[in-house]
Predict the structure.
Amino acid sequence: MSRARTLLLWAAATDRTFALVGQRPDRRLEGKCIFCRRRLALALDRDERHPTATVEHILPRAHGGTDALENLAVACRRCNGGKGKRLDPAGPGHPTFDRVVERLRAERRKRWREPPENLDLPALR
Ligand SMILES: [Zn+2]
């Protein structure tokens, strides 16, 4: 499993809008995009070729954001790409950039939970 996919699964597992649905080998985590709240489903037991759910770095990596779980969220592909295009060139100190990052941090804190133990997620390295 790719590192991006592992991070995505951990981001969903620590977001209380995501619930476990289905049985092996077709389990899914279903929850909401951190931006637009569109419903998203992630396959737990296999890779997906064209996933609609992506891992969002709240503070972008280009601006020093890390892979710490608190900095990760689940976003649909459209929202994630749009945010990058609009905000990455602006960067910290730009009012829109700072406002969006703060809003996402607050939403992530609101949704935070410890990951359920029954998911058997791949190890975070
Ligand atoms: Zn979205």
DSSP finds three helices and five strands in the chain. The mean pLDDT is 94. The pocket of zinc ion is lined by residues 33, 35-36, 38, 75-76, 78-79 (CB under 6 Å).
